[in-house]
Write a structure and sequence with these properties.
By secondary structure, the chain is mostly helical. It has ten helices and no strands. It is elongated and about 60 Å long. The termini are far apart. The relative contact order is 0.10.
């Protein structure tokens, strides 16, 4: 039995359109997506295991790409580690406005750390193991100098007592801001709230602000 085509239908098979090769813009978008996926996956891996414990295959698997792309885009594991840290000064500039009161700047840092604790954990790994010294944060000295200059201005405004060194204040403030991520169980036992929750951030941020304001009296 012969099946007749439906009325108005083309009896000949439709010709397939040739597959279009990706253009330059498409390739750039794909490359950028792969790079960003690798950076996110690497931050997860480095934060969980430190520089020495991180494995390029695990990073590639997390990103869902071939591990050869790590060498292609970043020159290897060390280059990937450096690239992650290059973005930190730009991110910090968004909340470290030197014209803002010191308590506001500290609260912004706290909010950023609680929202994404991975950079803080990576910093802890570097401090505990001494790893990554050859791959230290690019322009790290510039960041320190900027922080010290901002704290000096805060002291000149009367927000820090004259007898306190801005260098000491930088270390002390970093310790207070990073403590909930570095010592979550201690924070939970002492305060009764889980770090990372909105209630904890509201409480801890208010206490941090109050302490800094007391220094300026």
């Amino acid at each position: 039995m012969t099946l007749e085509p439906e009325a108005g239908a083309d009896p000949t098979p439709a010709a397939r359109s040739p597959r279009r090769a990706p253009g330059a813009a498409d390739r750039r978008r794909d490359a950028e997506r792969s790079r960003q996926a690798l950076l996110e996956a690497a931050l997860d891996e480095f934060a969980a295991k430190g520089f020495d414990g991180a494995r390029v295959q695990e990073i590639a698997d997390r990103a869902g790409v071939n591990k050869q792309l790590i060498a292609y885009y970043f020159g290897g594991k060390e280059g990937l580690y450096q690239e992650i840290q290059r973005g930190w000064p730009a991110a910090e500039a968004e909340w470290a406005d030197p014209e803002l009161p010191l308590d506001e700047v500290a609260a912004r840092y706290l909010s950023a750390v609680l929202a994404d604790p991975r950079p803080a954990r990576l910093l802890a790994w570097r401090g505990l193991t001494g790893s990554g010294s050859a791959t230290d944060q690019p322009d790290g000295s510039v960041t320190v100098d900027t922080d010290l200059a901002n704290l000096t201005r805060a002291r000149d405004r009367g927000e820090i007592p004259p007898g306190l060194d801005p260098a000491f204040m930088r270390v002390a403030l970093m310790g207070m801001i990073l403590a909930p991520v570095m010592l979550p169980e201690t924070a939970l036992q002492a305060i009764g709230m889980q770090p990372g929750t909105p209630a904890f951030e509201e409480y801890y941020g208010a206490q941090l602000r109050a302490l800094i304001r007391l220094l300026g009296r």
